[in-house]
Structure formats: structure tokens, C-alpha cells
Amino acid sequence: MRATVINAPRDIRVEEVPDAAIKESGDAVVRVVLACICGSDLWAYRGESPRQPGQRIGHEFLGVVEETGSEVAGLKAGDLVVAPFVWSDGTCEHCVEGLTTSCPAGGFWGSVGSDGGQGEAVRVPFAEATLVKLPAEAASDERLLTALLSLSDVLGTGHHAAVGAGVKPGSRVAVVGDGAVGLCGVLAARRLGAERIIALGRHTVRTDIARKFGATDIVAERGDAAVEAVRELTGGKGAHAVIEAVGTEQSMRTAVGITRDGGAIGYVGVPHGSGTGLDLGIMFNRNIALRGGVAPVRTYIPELLPDVLDGTIDPSPVFDLTVGLEGVPGGYAAMDDRTALKTLVKL
Ligand SMILES: [Zn+2]
User: Fold this and answer.
1) Stretch 129-155: mean pLDDT, rounded?
2) Overall domain count for the chain
3) What average pLDDT does range 125-148 have in this prediction?
4) Of 11, 59, 81, 87, which shows the fewest CB atoms inside 10 Å?
């Protein structure tokens, strides 16, 4: 089969690799129909998170079950399914408590020895616990299928940040980060009943999507000027709930600055760079809470799926470039130079 591998920073190739195959009785093989490229894939692309030459890449996909192992009862060949960005066993203490990302038996697609999502097929361990079945009729609706793909990562991750920030009906929310996750944070905050949603960003393509997703205000400033602007919009106090979806020192510092005393930050940006941008003394004095991390999207899919299916929320506008499998290297380059927000891969 053909799949995407990373050989070195900025060296992404689509190559012939061994077919995905059943290894354990709980496995399934999924033929990928839609995949995409993630902002966090760009850290490997830019050489900021190390990969082994020839390692697979991609962690977001949906597709059709092609084969199942002998112990898989709830899934059969032909089922349309979406996969969260990690697999998990569904039975350990962490999984039972909903934190599938800490499952000791789990793993990330594209980690050494596993298939990546940007390929023709993927071997899925613990298939019944990991995969979520989708209605068969969704397969013929391209916009809906694209929206459903966001359940694999960005929608659940945006939701995780909104939950971590304590968004509830009537909340005043601010969102740091105008990538697909930040934009899905806007959508998640609106879904949870936020009254006011301030999106920080300066690219009209992205801020237009933020408005479409429910943002009531856009702040184009950065750094201290952004803090001032958000405070001005919130009676000098800041936002109750702040979503941080970038992971840099600067973005975390801004997040602290725009949070109202007693408020909370939900952080989902993969931390990178030297410092954290967090000053515990300031957070202590102002009673600012911090909650978040790698998002257990498998836990959120059952809650979010009905709203995507009936169109209450439609995250599909975050995908603004579509390529075939052989076009994946170009899809990375377009996201890297920010001419694309998120690349969809159609197989
Ligand atoms: Zn587990």
C-alpha cells in the first residue's frame, strides 16, 4: 500500500509500504477514505519534534472497516468509522475515567511500528474501544463526511479546551490561536452557551471562520496590546474562560493576561519552545486556574457526534485545501507557509 512517511525535516514522501494487516484478535484494518494534516504534524515537519527517518505520519482519519480480528464483535467489514488520534483499550482505569490519552495500552498513530493516518489503510488495535461507527449514509455526503473527520482531533481538542476553561452558559470567553483547534474552540464555546466569544487573530480568512463559528469580537493585536484590547472589551476585567490553542510562551503569557481574576485557562496547544510563559506568582495572586492537555477525544465523540450529524455544529470550513494522497507533501508545504489553514486528504 501507499502511505506518507517523514524522512527528515521538510522531507515528506508518499511511498510503498507493507499493507496494513491484522496482528491481534482485537484489531481491525480500516481503509482510509478521508485523512488530513494537523498543526501538530507541522512540528515534525519543521524538525521541532524528532521523528525517525521513514516513520509514518498522520493521526486523523475516517474510513471503512475492511477486516476484523476474531475477537471483534461490534464492528464488521463495510462499517464506516472515525478514529480518535490515539488508540486505547477502553477497559483500564484511565479509559474508564475517560482519559483515553493516558491508556497504558494505547498509542499515537504514526508512532514507531504503527501505521499513520495519511495512508491507504491503518491497522487499528483495540478496534472496538477505539473506533466509533458512523451512519452509512454519511458516506455519500462530502460536506458531512469532512465535518465528521474533525471528530478525529480538532473538534474534540477545541471542546477539551472549552471544558478545561470552564465555559458554561453566559460565559465571557477569549480564544488564543486562530488555527483549526482555536477555531474549533470558538465553535465548542458557542455550543456550550458562551454569551461573548472574543477571538484573537489577524488573518481575515481565519477570523471570518471564527465569526461564522460564533465569535462576537475579533482582536487583531498581539502581546500586551492584545491584553489591553480584550480587557477593554470586558469592562477592564478580562474573560472568565480562556482557550489557549498555540503552545508558545507568548500565547500562554497572553492567555494569563486576558483571564479575569478567578477565571480559568483551558490549554491544548502542544507546548514547545524553551519557557512556559506561566508565572505562578501572578496566577496565585489572581486565582487563575489552568486545566487541559492532550485531548481524550474518544471520550467526547459520543457527545459531539449527534450535533455534527444534525448540523448544529459544522466544523468543515476549517478545511480549506484538498489534495489526493500523492499531493500530501504539497499539503504540508501550504500549511507550513500558512497559505492553507488545514489540508484535507481525499483517498
Ligand atoms: Zn485504557
Assistant:
1) 98
2) 2
3) 98
4) 11
Residues 335 and 287 grouped into a single domain: no
* Mean pLDDT value of segment 18-37: 98
Ligand 1 centroid vs 177 CA: distance in angstroms? Answer: 30
60's grid cell: 486523523
Determine the Cα–Cα distance for residues 195 and 164; give it in Å rounded to an integer. 17
CB 262 within 8 A of CB 256: no
Residues 338 and 257 in one domain: no
Q: If you measure from the C-alpha of residue 95 to the centroid of ligand 1, how many angstroms do you get, rounded to a whole number?
A: 4
Distance separating alpha carbons of residues 80 and 86, to the nearest angstrom: 18
Q: How far is the CA of 279 from the centre of ligand 1 (A)?
A: 34
The pLDDT tens digits for 82-113 are: 999 999 999 999 999 999 999 999 999 999 99
Same domain, 280 and 337: no
* Domain limits for position 89: 2-153+296-346
What is the distance in A from the centroid of ligand 1 to the CA of 124?
14
Cα–Cα distance for residue pair 270/121, rounded to 1 Å: 27
